[in-house]
Every structure is written in C-alpha cells, then in structure tokens.
Design a protein that fits this description.
single chain, 184 residues, disordered N terminus, four-stranded antiparallel β-sheet, alpha+beta, globular, three-stranded antiparallel β-sheet, 7 strands
C-alpha cells in the first residue's frame, strides 16, 4: 500500500516583492500631476506675483516628483520588500537600508488602517516588540506614546502593505504563523 503524504513543505525563506501594478499606477498618476502642473500652472510658480501660490505649487511639484522617483525605484527593484527566514523578519526599504528583526524579540503583529474621507488610504502591519531598542525608547515620540497610553508604544517597526504584492490579511497570517513557530 502506498501512502500519500499531503503535508506541504514550507520553504525556509519567504520573500515578498513590490506590486508592479500599484507602482505603475503611482508612476502614471504622479507623472501626470507633476508635468501637468508644470505645464498648466507655469505662471503660478512666479514668486513675484503671488508668493504663497508659488510656494504651494512648488511644494506640490516636489511632493509628486518624489512620488515619481519612489514609484520608479519600486518598478526597477529586484530585491524583495520583506523576507521571512526561520528566525528573522527582514524589512527592506526603498531608500534606506534594511532592518532585521528577530522573531524571539517580537511580541505580536497588528494592523493599523489609515482613513481619508472614509476610505482606507494605507495599511500598516505594526511589529510590537517585547522590549524596544534603547535608541527607540529614548526617542521623543516613544515618550509621547507612553504618556498617552497609545497601544503601539512598543511598535518600533512597521510594514506598509500598500506596495507589497500580497494581501495584508494573508501577510498577517503568515507572520503570526512564523511567530508561533519561533515561540514554541
């Protein structure tokens, strides 16, 4: 009699990459807004006529110009956004260096939604640490969180799930499963 083993063998390293569709939409939207503002409102950037309007348009162009740069970097990116190993969570950032968090130092994960006019504009998975690092616990915002009793006071790291090519609920399930494996 032949036994059929249906257990799935999970890989020891799981990587999640950037979502190409969302990065493309951001690139198109930011490019249209940036170059459209430059072409259409070119006379409003004249600081001699109206200083406030000129500064606001200039800041808007810079903001959406950074959107073009970040979305372009997401499109050409070959490295993953998040990597899960047996014992570590590695968070890669588009501009800054990666952050390595050991599962043994993590207490839990939870989702925070940011709303704009009733719609979810971004989702973050916060990593609640058992004990935050000394640098983080000496920061001014940590002390403000502690004074007001904010739930995320020990959440030193977060994962923005907007541009990751996985649903935030699925990612949270995988993270919690990895956390349980490392606690046991």
């Amino acid at each position: 009699m032949i036994e059929n083993n249906t257990n799935k063998i999970e890989p020891s390293i799981i990587s999640f990459y950037s979502n190409i569709e969302k990065a493309s939409l951001m690139l198109i939207g930011s490019s249209i807004f940036t170059f459209g503002c430059i072409l259409v409102f070119n006379e409003n950037i004249n600081f001699k006529l109206n200083l406030f309007k000129g500064i606001m348009f200039f800041l808007g162009i810079i903001l959406f110009g950074f959107g073009v740069i970040v979305s372009f970097l997401l499109l050409i990116r070959k490295k993953p956004m998040i990597t899960l190993t047996e014992n570590e969570l590695i968070i890669f950032n588009v501009i800054r260096k990666e952050k390595i968090v050991k599962f043994k130092d993590i207490k839990s994960f939870f989702i925070v939604n940011t709303y704009h006019r009733g719609f979810v504009s971004s989702r973050h998975i916060f990593v609640e640490m058992k004990k935050p690092s000394e640098k983080y616990s000496n920061s001014w915002y940590y002390n403000i969180y502690k004074i007001f009793g904010v739930e995320m006071v020990n959440s030193e790291y977060s994962l923005q799930t907007t541009f990751i090519d996985i649903n935030h609920k699925e990612l949270l399930k995988i993270l919690n499963k990895k956390l349980k494996q490392n606690v046991a």
